[in-house]
Design a protein that fits this description.
This protein has 2 domains: 283 residues, NADH-ubiquinone oxidoreductase 51kDa subunit (Rossmann fold, 3-Layer(aba) Sandwich), CATH 3.40.50.11540; 71 residues, no CATH class. Helices cover 28% and strands 19% of the residues. The relative contact order is 0.15. It is built from 14 helices and 17 strands.
């Protein structure tokens, strides 16, 4: 491994990494017998179904259209008959609109290139690339699920200078990005070049934490053939993968409060997104599957699976030889930012990066005790906030105060809650504060 190891200067913690599935090659999960496809798979407005009950669909066929600027197309991840358009359970525990398809065979749309040949030459221009990415329903694969094409269209007066590819994967337990970099490195680099062409930039940085030396060395070697792409090793420090933290670490540029990365000439995309961009632009493949880590200390076979969107989580649990008896919680995502699930009927969606089967003893919250004003939460906040103050404001419904103290700058990393000796659920209160302040801001903007 070569290169100067960098990090962000403010806050952060170092939880136990528990990368149990790091050496597990990506396996393809069998196609489910039924696919449950939610319409709300992106940050923004849910998609609108364009198929009806009884319609026959192919893999890759458009089944729901974007219903606004911040919205995405959805394509069928399976072939078969549309059983119904109905409410289905999602990761929040609520039922929301979706399409249920009975799977019959595995018949793909003829326009998709299914060959294993790696296509190097980028034939489309910037505008055509952005249109293709929009057409194929791509979203941020790191979990935020912001429509990818929107990030590639800076607002008037803003110009991108750098593309940053996030290969950090700082969340404990998760290894889907790590395996993707090892197994699909060349495709990721071509996807990076495609994104550079779309943004009209000549500089890209792929940031990777140095607990993945194999991925760093592999991509450094591959990147020698691709002008303008630099592989940047980063110190293991959570939440290194936050957009603002990555930009500060890699470029020493600071995104102002309330602003986006484009403010400092940067656009950030996940490595999974770069791979999906390669498949969309070079292979005409919509976003119909993704790599998901299934792991936990009690799991017999921690794994990384290539899974079709719409596959019930139960299928993934079966593939790791079942739910351990010692499981206390099933977490959608990692232990720091993930959220507990109420059912295994929930399907894999575009933003599903991992499923953590957390042991009962580590999943129990300790009893809350009074705040002792130790200020540990402030020291570890990577955004320079005062979590104890913001949580108090949210708890007392003082949302004007929470807004004034910049609760919307919170990236929900959970560092404050992780380090709190009083076991106060700080992240819960901060999420509540963000939800209420966000609603207040939207209501003000409507007037």
């Amino acid at each position: 491994m070569t290169g100067n190891v960098k990090t962000f200067p403010l806050g952060g913690v170092h939880p136990q990494e528990n990368k149990l599935s790091a050496n597990a090659p990506i396996e393809t999960i069998p196609v489910p017998t039924q696919a449950f496809i939610p319409m709300g798979q992106n940050l923004g407005t849910p998609s609108k179904p364009i198929v009806n009950k009884g319609d026959m669909v192919k893999v890759g066929q458009l089944i729901a259209e974007a219903s606004g600027f911040i919205s995405t197309n959805i394509h069928s991840p399976v072939s078969g008959k549309v059983l119904k358009i109905d409410d289905i359970l999602d990761a929040t525990g609520y039922k929301r609109p979706g399409i249920i398809i009975n799977v019959e065979g595995d018949d793909w749309d003829e326009s998709i290139d299914l060959s294993n040949d790696i296509k190097e030459d980028i034939e489309l221009d910037s505008k055509q690339i952005i249109e293709k990415i929009k057409e194929k329903g791509l979203v941020g694969m790191g979990g935020a699920t912001f429509p990818t094409y929107v990030k590639l269209m800076p607002p008037p007066g803003k110009v991108a200078e750098y593309l940053l590819i996030n290969g950090v994967e700082c969340e404990p337990y998760l290894t889907s990005d790590h395996r993707l970099m090892l197994e699909k490195g060349k495709e990721i680099l071509i996807g990076t070049k495609i994104l550079m062409k779309a943004l009209k930039v000549d500089k890209a940085i792929i940031g990777i934490e140095n607990n993945k030396p194999d991925a760093i060395n592999h991509l450094i070697e591959l990147a020698k053939k691709y002008d303008g792409i630099k592989i940047q090793p980063l110190k293991v420090q959570y939440p290194q993968g936050g957009e603002k933290q990555l930009i500060k670490a890699a470029l020493n540029r600071e995104v102002p409060s309330g602003k986006l990365p484009i403010e400092v000439g940067c656009v950030v995309q996940n490595v999974g997104t770069a791979f999906a961009v390669y498949e969309a632009v070079q292979k005409n493949k919509p976003l119909i599957d993704r790599v998901v880590t299934v792991t936990g200390k009690g799991v017999k076979k921690p794994s990384n699976f290539l899974v079709r969107i719409g596959t019930p989580l139960q299928d993934l649990i079966d593939a790791v030889e079942g739910l351990p008896e010692t499981t206390g919680k099933i977490i959608n995502g990692g232990p720091m930012m993930g959220k507990a699930l109420t059912s295994l009927e929930v399907p894999v969606v575009k933003g599903s990066s991992g499923i953590l089967l957390m042991e009962e003893d580590e999943s129990k919250r300790k009893p809350e005790s009074p705040c002792i004003r130790c200020s540990k939460c402030t020291y570890v906040c990577p955004q320079g906030l005062e979590p104890f103050l913001l949580s108090k404001a949210a708890k007392l419904a003082k949302f004007d105060m929470a807004e004034k103290e910049k609760v919307m700058d919170c990236i929900e990393c959970g560092s404050c809650q992780y380090t709190c000796p009083a076991s106060i659920p700080l992240l819960d209160y901060l999420r509540l504060g963000k939800t209420m302040v966000g609603a207040n801001i939207r209501n003000r903007n409507k007037k």
